[in-house]
Structure formats: structure tokens, C-alpha cells
């Protein structure tokens, strides 16, 4: 239909029109009521201006404003359109990454994460020296951080492509394969990273605790078994939201924030509690390492101690980054949210992936 007809609509009713995922680029000059299918489309009708350069001659009459319908149709440059369904707290009327500094920062962090972790993998796997257990575990940590970098690049790219008109692309993005793939990458990367950091700590603790017992040291074949279990756990954790346990479709940044059902709530809370438990396990191991190193009766190898010190910096910086995420995510999972989704995006860029960017520079490189 021509724009001259649709542009003059006063009521637009398109309920249960599930294939209408993108609104046509029309100038609704007389629209007052819109009943649509998707909440995101109501964002298109916020702060619409009439752009009337010249109003009706009677607009200047002192009593014109008292005639509400007349003034609205012929005089007012702005309008208030009643639109339903209204956007909820999980999908506010904004782009994926709204503030400009946030857009710049997510590109910087994602590029550094991709370049740094790719360099670590190339160096560790391409080296002619023997592959030790710490280096083997570092390869897995670098791969997990590389997956996080891929997730950030995907989010940043979609934000760039949909800037200013995300409401028209929200349905296709959040319900499509792209968002599910991005969500899988970030959950897989996050859980594999936590699992690997815990494995690194336990390996250092075992090596130093039994410094004089060479038969008690972790062998490469044992590390392979441990990391196979880590890959299986991380893959299952990332796959569950794709089969109905929570969902990646809830928000534009494709994180499993859906806790409506009991199983979804149990899933999200369980992941967060496992991460918190891993943190306390790491703290306990490093406390034991500290006591062992300063015990006169125990003489761990200088190399083992040095590696443990470097690993401690790596692990604690990672868990410091994860602490605010775990805190706010746990409160949201228990349906007691302390911050909005817009604030969560700030945490997403400033804390959530910063360890993936910094790990190669803190330790490996």
C-alpha cells in the first residue's frame, strides 16, 4: 500500500502478526493508537514529531489548547501514542550498546582478547619444548578466553549494524541462531575458564604440597582426563538454554537471564554457586600454598613456587572481575534484581570479559 494511505493511519492494529518483524519506514503523522505483536516495535513510536512547519490558523486562538483533539491533530508538533505491548525491563528502548564509550570499549577489549589469546595459543602449541601440565592448562584457558572474544565481537558487530534501529531487528536477532550461538560461546567460555582456573590452582597446590614426592605430581594424561570433564561440563551448561532450560532470547546481549520457570532458576543459580564454590576452593588452595612455602620443614622447588606466584595473580584478577557479576546475577536469579539490564551491559563490558583480555598479558605473553 502507498505511504500516502498508511501515513494517515490513526489506529494501527497488528496483533498476532508474527511475520511482521520489521516495521515499514513510514511517517505516521496522525497515529494515536498502536496495538502490535512485539514489544520492541513500540520503541519506534516514542517521541514522534509531527514536523508541522505551519499549523492551522486557529492554532493561535487562545482557546485552541482546550480543544484537545483539534490541537493534537492540527497544531502539536509532538504526540503521545498509546502503544502495546510495552517494552519490559529486560528489553528497554535502546541499542545493544547505547553509550558511545561503551561501544568503543567493547571493540577494544574484543580485539585485544582475540589477538592476545591467539598469540598465546600459537606460541604454546608451536613451541618445540616439552608441553608441561601448566602450559597444557594455559592452552585451555587461552581457548576459553578466545571464545569470549568471539562473543564480544559478535555483539559489537550486531550493535554496529543495528544502531539507531535495533527495535526493527530485535526479533530476528534474539530469536535467531545468531543470538543462540553467541550465548553458547559466552557460557561455554565462562564455565571453561572457571574450571580451568580451578584446575590450574589445584595442580599448583598438589605440586608444591608434595614437592618431594615425584610420584604424586599430576601427569599430562591426568590433566587430559580432567580437562575432558571440564569440556563436557561447559558444553552441557552452554547447551541447556538452547533446549528450554532458561533462554538466550530474553535480552539483546544473549545471556541466560530467563528465570521464569523453576528449572531455569535452578540452572542459573547452580552455575553461579559453582563459580562461587570454585573461588573459595582457589582461596583455600593458595592459603595452603602460602603456608607450605613459608614452612621451614617444606622445601618446594623454586620454579614451582614462582609459577604458583604468577598463577595466583592470574587467578585472583580473574575472580575479582567475576565477583560483581556473580553478586548481581545471583540477586537477579532470585528475582531480587539490584540493577537494570542497561547497567548490566556496563558490567558486561567492564568486568565480565576483562580477564579474557588481560590473561595473555598478565601471565602468558
UniProtKB/TrEMBL annotation:
Q: Where are the transmembrane segments?
A: 104-125, 137-161, 181-202, 223-246, 266-291, 312-334
Please tell me where this protein is predominantly located.
Answer: membrane
Keyword match Cell membrane: yes
Give the location in the cell: Cell membrane
Give the Gene3D superfamilies listed for this entry: Rhodopsin 7-helix transmembrane proteins, Ribonuclease Inhibitor
Q: Which residues form the G-protein coupled receptors family 1 profile domain?
A: 116-363
InterPro entries, per database record: GPCR_Rhodpsn (IPR000276), GPCR_Rhodpsn_7TM (IPR017452), Gphrmn_rcpt_fam (IPR002131), LRR_dom_sf (IPR032675)
Name a single GO biological process. hormone-mediated signaling pathway
Organism's domain of life?
Eukaryota
Q: Enumerate the UniProt keywords alphabetically.
A: Cell membrane, Disulfide bond, G-protein coupled receptor, Leucine-rich repeat, Membrane, Receptor, Repeat, Transducer, Transmembrane, Transmembrane helix
GO CC annotations on file: plasma membrane
Topological type in the membrane: Multi-pass membrane protein
Gene Ontology terms, MF aspect: follicle-stimulating hormone receptor activity; G protein-coupled peptide receptor activity
This chain belongs to the protein called Follicle stimulating hormone receptor
Specify the species: Thunnus thynnus (Atlantic bluefin tuna)
Amino acid at each position: 500500500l502507498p505511504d500516502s494511505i498508511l501515513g494517515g493511519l490513526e489506529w494501527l492494529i497488528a496483533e498476532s502478526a508474527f511475520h511482521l518483524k520489521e516495521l515499514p519506514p513510514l511517517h505516521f503523522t496522525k497515529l494515536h493508537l498502536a496495538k502490535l505483536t512485539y514489544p520492541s516495535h513500540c520503541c519506534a513510536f516514542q517521541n514522534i514529531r509531527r514536523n508541522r512547519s505551519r499549523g492551522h490558523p486557529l492554532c493561535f486562538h487562545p482557546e485552541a489548547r482546550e480543544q484537545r483533539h483539534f490541537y493534537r491533530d492540527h497544531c502539536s508538533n509532538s504526540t503521545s501514542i498509546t502503544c502495546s505491548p510495552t517494552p519490559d525491563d529486560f528489553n528497554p528502548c535502546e541499542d545493544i550498546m547505547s553509550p558511545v564509550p561503551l561501544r568503543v570499549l567493547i571493540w577494544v577489549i574484543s580485539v585485544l582478547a582475540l589477538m592476545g589469546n591467539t598469540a598465546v595459543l600459537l606460541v604454546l602449541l608451536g613451541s618445540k619444548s616439552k608441553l608441561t601440565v601448566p602450559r597444557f592448562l594455559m592452552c585451555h584457558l587461552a581457548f576459553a578466553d578466545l571464545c569470549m572474544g568471539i562473543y564480544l565481537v559478535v555483539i559489537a558487530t550486531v550493535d554496529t549494524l543495528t544502531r539507531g534501529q535495533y527495535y526493527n531487528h530485535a526479533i530476528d536477532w534474539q530469536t535467531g541462531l545468531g543470538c543462540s550461538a553467541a550465548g553458547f560461546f559466552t557460557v561455554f567460555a565462562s564455565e571453561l575458564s572457571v574450571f580451568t582456573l580451578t584446575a590450574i590452582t589445584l595442580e599448583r597446590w598438589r605440586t608444591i604440597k608434595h614437592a618431594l614426592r615425584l610420584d604424586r605430581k599430576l601427569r599430562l594424561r591426568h590433566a587430559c582426563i580432567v580437562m575432558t570433564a571440564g569440556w563436557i561440563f561447559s558444553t552441557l551448561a552452554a547447551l541447556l538454554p538452547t533446549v528450554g532450560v532458561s533462554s538466550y532470547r530474553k535480552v539483546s546481549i544473549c545471556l541466560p537471564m530467563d528465570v521464569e520457570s523453576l528449572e531455569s532458576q535452578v540452572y542459573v543459580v547452580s552455575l553461579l554457586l559453582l563459580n562461587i564454590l570454585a573461588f573459595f576452593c582457589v582461596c583455600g588452595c593458595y592459603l595452603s600454598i602460602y603456608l607450605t612455602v613459608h614452612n621451614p620443614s617444606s622445601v618446594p622447588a623454586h620454579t614451582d613456587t614462582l609459577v604458583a606466584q604468577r598463577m595466583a595473580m592470574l587467578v585472583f584478577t580473574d575472580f575479582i572481575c567475576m565477583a560483581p557479576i556473580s553478586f548481581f546475577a545471583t540477586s537477579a536469579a532470585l528475582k531480587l534484581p539490584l540493577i537494570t539490564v542497561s547497567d548490566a551491559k556496563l558490567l558486561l563490558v567492564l568486568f565480565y570479559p576483562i580477564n579474557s583480555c588481560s590473561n595473555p598479558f598478565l601471565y602468558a605473553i
